[in-house]
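Notes from the pairing session

We agreed to fold both candidates in a single pass and log them together. This is the raw record for the first candidate, unedited. Please don't reformat it; downstream parsing expects exactly this layout.

Candidate A
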Amino acid sequence: MITTSSALGYKFSRDYVTNGWYDHINGGDYTSEQQSALVDALTEAQVDEFEALLPESHYWLIHTSELQYPVGDDTETGDLEQLLSQSVEAVCARLPQIEAKTLTDLA
């Protein structure tokens, strides 16, 4: 399958997303190592949640802020910023489980 991609903008960048998660957990009593691992886990979970909302064969390339999809695919993706918000909400709902697993894995 041949793919192409479209730029999504700064809100879809790894820097923007990870900064948001650092802000979200910034009241916790985490070591730097725990904070970094938790932000990585939350970011990975958000990418998974976002991609689950996309049409099949569409992927969020967070490191380059792009949406990858098959050439010639004209499937409607919907409001991507709304999907981004939904992915944040889904991850927040799973935060206790993600936190527990991440901190256990570090121990």
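Candidate B (folded immediately after A)
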Amino acid sequence: MADERFSLKLASDVAFYLDEAKVPNLLFGWLAMSLVGSRKVSTEVDFVIPDNKMPAAIKTLAETANYPVCKDPNCNELHFDRVRGYTADQSLVLSPNRIHSVAAAHFHLEDGTFILNLHPQSKLLWWLPELTTAAPAAEDPYLMLSTDPRLPPLSVKPALEGVAPTGGPGPCSANLYHPVKILNPGSLTEALLTLLCRDRARQAMGESEEADHLAMLWTLMSSQLYDSCGTSISKHVRPKFKEAWDGLNERDPGMTNVFNAVRALRDRMALANELGPLVDGSKYTPPDDFL
């Protein structure tokens, strides 16, 4: 998979340049999911950067790595939905790269084939302790490295036509790739559930189009980590997420709607002001709805 190899090398290079410049960074998105066992070839590479380090990150990649920062005000990457016009009704499942969280800065690489995105931490991972330049400890509750041997091994299962094999590309070799910080499988699962709850709460508060589309994205991404997808690594989530995660995995035979627990999680987190700067818990009223 040439695209996968290039994406991994790009992520490794980005982490190297940022680490050398003492800019904290974390790989997120589809490529990070691939490393924890949900293999999907993507030409997007997404990094999360502490908000106050974003200018330094952009400058480092532009000046040291010579990556061209996109400054086109009409660039398609500035839209959360990349598909418009007569194809706009195509299925998100069939076009998973269609919806994305718009980055603070992005770079077109390899003649535009690959996109490197830099996202502020407050937009995607506000709940995570502010990222630092230190390597995560073995017992870190949230983070690990792309070279960690605990990651699932290289998948050798043949793929169905048009479908990538289950399992990840395997831990990255430290001899070939600079280590990249990622969320561990449990924290990645929690991150996607939290983002889903945030955007469902935004919908409930009257924010429609962007919130609706992003909620579909987080639903799709989290579904790639379900038990039924055959990922070979366990996702141990914290107690407050367990009921929702069990529901989505249909582990409770008595649950008539697998999204009920997610709806309850959304309401609890919104009222507790845990859904980040886009959701004001003091103005949130739990709606009588279904996800």
